[in-house]
Amino acid sequence: MKRALIGLVLAGLLLLGLSACSGRPGPDDPILSDRKLNLDEFFAGRTLAHGQFQDRFGTVQRRFTVEIDGRWDGKTLRLVEDFTYDDGETEQRIWTLSKTGPDSWTGTAPGVLGQATGIERGDSFNWVYRIDLPVRKGTMRVDFDDWMWLMADGRVLNRAYVSRFGVALGEAIITFEKPH
Predict the structure, then answer these.
(1) Collapsing DSSP states into helix, strand and coil, what is residue 95?
(2) Degrees (nearest 5) of the Cα angle 80, 84, 90?
């Protein structure tokens, strides 16, 4: 019995260690272009996004589109995000972001615990927050480590790493573009 318990604990620690070792972007990664992602400029006006969430095993669980209406007043960026999932479900999230420095942001939205924090660095933006995320049967408290990159064609590629209690749940992959 004692041996089985020790085996379970070791297996759990191994799983946590493996999930922590998965490759992720970091703040010290090289900047790969001379483009500059300015959130206030990119997200002002109407933006359209397409994305999907896949679990930690790579299985696509959900696809969605998002119509975003962004308003920048020189200090605050307000983003009204209207999600439509492939199963017909809809959701709205309203973000209020404040520019706190030349490249730093804080923000909040319903369900976000505390404040989200973000840093623009060259063509990338890293956004970190904890949220009570609506799911099919209520809400689930998860952590987002959200990375965005301005691509050469003017689109923004987003990869959000989602975890709970430090264990990877999956990733959201999204492209943002300005409608023509």
Answers:
(1) strand
(2) 80
Cα 31 from Cα 121, distance rounded (Å): 8
Residue 72's pLDDT band (cuts 50, 70, 90): very high
Render pLDDT for 111-154 as a digit per residue (tens, 0 to 9): 999 999 999 999 999 999 999 988 878 899 999 999 999 999 99
Tokens representing 123?
Answer: 């063509």
E strands in 10-123: 45-55, 60-72, 76-85, 90-99, 104-108, 112-121
At 67, list the tokens: 């119509």
SS3 88: coil
Using an 8 Å Cβ cutoff, are 62 and 86 in contact?
A: yes
Instruction: Please name which of 56, 36, 41 lies closest in space to residue 163, comparing C-alpha atoms.
Output: 56
Burial class (CB in 10 A: 0-12, 13-18, 19+), 170: buried
